[in-house]
From TrEMBL:
PANTHER family: E3 UBIQUITIN-PROTEIN LIGASE TRIM36, E3 UBIQUITIN-PROTEIN LIGASE TRIM36-RELATED
Domain COS: 344-401
Protein name, UniProt field: RING-type E3 ubiquitin transferase
Organism: Equus asinus
Residue ranges annotated for the Fibronectin type-III domain, each copy included: 407-499
Keywords: Coiled coil, Cytoplasm, Cytoplasmic vesicle, Cytoskeleton, Metal-binding, Microtubule, Repeat, Transferase, Ubl conjugation pathway, Zinc, Zinc-finger
Keyword hit for Transmembrane: no
Biased composition (Basic and acidic residues): 601-610
GO biological process, one term: acrosome reaction
B30.2/SPRY domain mapped to chain residues: 484-709
The organism's taxonomic lineage, starting at the top: Eukaryota, Metazoa, Chordata, Craniata, Vertebrata
Regions that span the bilayer: none
C-alpha cells in the first residue's frame, strides 16, 4: 500500500502542467468550463470580461488597457467584480454588455450569452484533482479539525454534507448514531467540498440528468423541453458517462500501449536538444571569431590612424618650437639680439665687417618676419577626422546570412501612429517566412538610441501600444524561416502625437442641421449637401441673401488636460472651418446662426479677415482655421510674414488638433509629418468642444483609433 501511495504522489506531481490556469498561470481556483471546453479560474473570467469591457468603452484613450489575456491580469475592485457577476449587468443603456472575450487557452473568441458567468459549469473534477495535488505538495501539512477547541486536533474525516473537517471525537459528537447526520457522506481530510448533486445553471432548481451531444455539455430536462437545447440531440447521463468513459479509457490504453514509442521519441528529443546546444555553442564561437577579426581590423586601423595623427602632431610642434626659439632670440640680451649686441663691441674694422655681413642678413630676415607674422604650422586637424558613417551603417545592418530568406519591407503608406502604432510590411516571398519579429525603440531628443523591444508576429502587421507621447520611435522587422533569420528591414521613424488621443463622435443633436449636413450611422463622418436648397435660395440674391456656415461639434467636451484628435478633409471640399470653441460661444452661434456674429468676420477668430489685425494678442473663446480647395490657410500674425504665398499651404492628408486646456493653447498639425502648422492662445474658461463648420460641398472624416478590432478589419479588407 505504501508503494501505491508513493506512486500516486509521484503521478499527481507529474501532472502539474495540466492544473495551471492559462490566464493567471497559477493553480486553478474554482475552475469554470468555457464553451470551447477549456477551463479557467472563476476570478480570471471576471477579470477578462472587465478588461475587454474597459477596452471597448475606453477605445482610443491613452489609458486603454491593451494587455494580453495571457499576461497576469490586474485585480479589479470587489465592487466591479460583484457587478459583472450579476446576470443582466451592464454599465448604462448606451453601453452594450460585454460577454465575448478571447479564451486564453486557444485564443478563440467565446461568447457567454445572456447569462454570462452564471451560465458556465464549475469543473468539479478538475477542482478535486487540484486539491489532491495541493495535498500532495504539502504532504507534511495536516488539515486540522474545524470544531475542536484550541488547540485543534488533526482531522481524520471531512463531511461533504457539512463542508467541514473533524477529528474522531468531534465527528462522533456532531454526527450522533441514530440521527439524520449519521447518514452524511464523509471522505478523508480535504478542503475541497463540492455539491453531491450537479444543478443546472439555466434552471437552478433542476438536477443535471442529460447530456447534449451537439453542445457537449450536461443539461436538465427543462433545457430539452423548452430551452436552448430543445432541437438538439440529447442522451441520458448514464449513457454519456458510459460512452465517454469507454472512449477515454480506450485512448489512455492506447497511449500506455505506445509508452515505448513515446520514450523513444523523448530520447530522440533529448539528443536533438543536446545537438542544438552543441551547434548553438559552435555558432557562438564562430560569431565571436568573426567579430574578433573585425576587432583586429579596427584595432589595426585605429593604430595606423593614431600613429599618423601623432606624427603630424610631432612635426607641427617641432616647427612651432623652432619658430618660438627664433622669436625668443629677438629679445634683448637673448639669442640673436644678444649676439648682435656683442658683435657691436668689436673695434677691429676688418673683423667686424667679416662677421657683421652675415649677421645683418639674419637681422633683416627677423625684422621682416615681425612685420608679417605667420605660424609655422596649422593647429587644425580637420584632415585627420575619421569618416565612419558608411561603415557604421554597414555594421548596423550586420546580421546572419539569410540563406534565401528575403528581407521584409515596411509599408510606409499603411503604417501610421495615432493612439497606438500600426506597423505593416510585405515580404517578397510571403510563403517562405514562418514568422516575423518586429523591433521598436524610442529615440531621445539628443539622438540617443535606447535598446530594442521585440515582439513576435505571425502575420504582416502589428499594433504597438503604450508608446510615449511626442516622441520619435524607430521600427524595423525581420523574417524567420525555421531557425534562420533574415537581415532587418530599413528602419521607419514615426512621431507620436503631442498628447493622448481624445476620442469623440459627431454630435447629432446640438446644432446639427440635417437639411444641409449628412451624418453617417457611425457618426464619424459628415458631409455638406450643397444642392437643391442652395439653388432655390439663389432667387433671393437681390434682397441680400447670403449662405451661412453649418456647424457640427464633438459629442464630448474638455475641461482639463492635454488632448489630441485628427481628421481628414475631403479634397473636393469648398470651405471647411475646424478648431475648438467654448460651450457659451457655441450656444451663441447655434441659437441664431444667421443673426449671430460669424467667426468668419469676428475679430481674431483665426481666419483671414481684415479686422483681425487690430487685436492679435486678445484671447478668444474659440479658434477656427480655414481649409478648402486643397489649401490650408494660416491666419495673419504680427510675428511672421503675412504675404499670401507664405500663408497658404497645401492641405495635409490628415490634420491634427492639439489642445492644452490648462495653458489655454491650441495647435494645428500636419499628421503625416507630425509638424505644427499654426499655434495660438485660446480662452479655456469654459468647457471646450471640437468644432467644425462647412459651406458648400465638403466632407470631414474623423480618424479611426487603432485597436485590435481595427487591425482585424484591415486584414479582412
Amino acid at each position: 500500500m505504501e508503494g501505491d501511495g508513493s506512486d500516486s504522489l509521484v503521478t499527481i506531481r507529474n501532472i502539474e502542467r495540466e492544473l495551471i490556469c492559462p490566464a493567471c498561470k497559477e493553480l486553478f481556483t474554482h475552475p469554470l468550463i468555457l464553451p470551447c471546453q477549456h477551463s479557467i479560474c472563476h476570478k480570471c473570467v471576471k477579470e477578462l470580461l472587465l478588461t475587454v469591457d474597459d477596452s471597448f468603452n475606453d477605445v482610443g484613450s491613452d489609458n486603454s488597457n491593451q494587455s494580453s489575456p495571457r499576461l497576469r491580469l490586474p485585480s479589479p475592485s470587489v465592487d466591479k467584480i460583484d457587478r459583472i457577476s450579476r446576470p443582466g449587468w451592464k454599465r448604462n443603456s448606451l453601453t452594450p454588455r460585454t460577454t465575448t472575450f478571447p479564451c486564453p487557452g486557444c485564443e478563440h473568441d467565446v461568447d457567454l450569452g445572456e447569462r454570462g458567468i452564471s451560465g458556465l459549469f464549475r469543473n468539479f473534477t478538475l477542482e478535486t484533482i487540484v486539491e489532491r495535488y495541493r495535498q500532495a505538495a504539502r504532504a507534511a501539512t495536516a488539515i486540522m479539525c474545524d470544531l475542536c477547541k484550541p488547540p485543534p486536533q488533526e482531522s481524520t474525516k471531512s463531511c461533504l454534507d457539512c463542508s467541514a473537517s473533524y477529528c474522531n471525537e468531534c465527528f462522533k459528537i456532531y454526527h450522533p448514531w441514530g440521527t439524520v447526520k449519521a447518514q452524511h457522506e464523509y471522505v478523508g481530510p480535504t478542503t475541497n467540498f463540492r455539491p453531491k448533486i450537479l444543478m443546472c445553471p439555466e434552471h437552478e432548481t433542476e438536477r443535471i440528468n442529460m447530456y447534449c451531444e451537439l453542445c457537449r455539455r450536461p443539461v436538465c430536462h427543462l433545457c430539452k423541453l423548452g430551452g436552448n437545447h430543445s432541437n438538439h440531440r440529447v442522451t441520458t447521463m448514464s449513457s454519456a458517462y458510459k460512452t465517454l468513459k469507454e472512449k477515454l479509457s480506450k485512448d489512455i490504453d492506447y497511449l500506455i500501449g505506445k509508452e515505448s514509442q513515446v520514450k523513444s521519441q523523448i530520447s530522440e528529443l533529448n539528443l536533438l536538444m543536446k545537438e542544438t546546444e552543441c551547434n548553438g555553442e559552435r555558432a557562438k564561437e564562430e560569431a565571436i571569431t568573426h567579430f574578433e577579426k573585425l576587432f583586429e581590423v579596427l584595432e589595426e586601423r585605429k593604430s595606423s590612424v593614431l600613429k599618423a595623427i601623432d606624427a603630424s602632431k610631432k612635426l607641427r610642434l617641432d616647427k612651432f618650437q623652432t619658430q618660438m626659439e627664433e622669436y625668443q632670440g629677438l629679445l634683448e640680451n637673448s639669442g640673436l639680439v644678444g649676439y648682435a649686441q656683442e658683435v657691436l663691441k668689436e673695434t677691429d674694422q676688418s673683423c667686424f665687417v667679416q662677421t657683421a655681413k652675415q649677421l645683418h642678413l639674419r637681422i633683416q630676415k627677423a625684422t621682416e618676419s615681425l612685420k608679417s607674422f605667420r605660424p609655422a604650422a596649422q593647429t587644425s586637424f580637420e584632415d585627420y577626422v575619421v569618416n565612419t558613417s558608411k561603415q557604421t551603417e554597414l555594421l548596423g545592418e550586420l546580421s546572419f546570412f539569410s540563406r534565401g530568406v528575403d528581407v521584409p519591407e515596411i509599408n510606409e503608406e499603411e503604417s501610421r501612429v495615432y493612439n497606438n502604432a500600426l506597423i505593416s510590411w510585405h515580404h517578397p516571398e510571403k510563403d517562405k517566412a514562418d514568422s516575423y519579429v518586429l523591433e521598436y525603440r524610442k529615440i531621445n531628443r539628443d539622438e540617443e538610441m535606447l535598446s530594442w523591444n521585440e515582439t513576435e508576429v505571425c502575420g504582416t502587421s502589428k499594433m504597438i501600444s503604450e508608446l510615449d507621447n511626442n516622441c520619435n520611435y524607430a521600427f524595423r522587422v525581420r523574417a524567420y524561416k525555421g531557425s534562420i533569420c533574415s537581415p532587418c528591414s530599413r528602419e521607419l521613424i514615426l512621431h507620436t502625437p503631442p498628447a493622448p488621443v481624445f476620442s469623440f463622435l459627431f454630435d447629432e443633436k446640438c446644432g446639427y442641421n440635417n437639411e444641409h449636413l449628412l451624418l453617417n450611422l457611425k457618426r464619424d463622418r459628415v458631409e455638406s449637401r450643397a444642392g437643391f436648397n442652395l439653388l432655390l435660395s439663389a432667387d433671393r440674391i437681390q434682397v441680400g441673401y447670403y449662405t451661412s456656415l453649418d456647424y457640427i461639434i464633438g459629442d464630448t467636451g474638455i475641461t482639463k488636460g492635454k488632448h489630441f484628435w485628427a481628421f481628414r478633409v475631403e479634397p473636393y471640399s469648398y470651405l471647411v472651418k475646424v478648431g475648438v470653441a467654448s460651450s457659451d460661444k457655441l450656444q451663441e452661434w447655434l441659437r441664431s446662426p444667421r443673426d449671430a456674429v460669424s467667426p468668419r468676420y469676428e475679430q481674431d477668430s483665426g481666419h483671414d479677415s481684415g479686422s483681425e489685425d487690430a487685436s492679435f494678442d486678445s484671447s478668444q473663446p474659440f479658434t477656427l482655421v480655414t481649409i478648402g480647395m486643397k489649401k490650408f490657410f494660416i491666419p495673419k500674425s504680427p510675428t511672421s510674414s503675412n504675404e499670401p504665398e507664405n500663408r497658404v499651404l497645401p492641405m495635409p492628408t490628415t490634420i491634427g488638433i492639439f489642445l492644452d486646456y490648462d495653458k489655454g493653447k491650441v495647435g494645428f498639425y500636419d499628421m503625416d509629418h507630425m509638424k505644427c502648422l499654426y499655434e495660438r492662445q485660446v480662452d479655456c474658461s469654459h468647457t471646450m468642444y471640437p468644432a467644425f463648420a462647412l459651406m458648400g460641398s465638403g466632407g470631414i472624416q474623423l480618424e479611426e483609433p487603432i485597436t485590435a478590432k481595427y487591425l482585424e478589419y484591415q486584414k479582412d479588407m
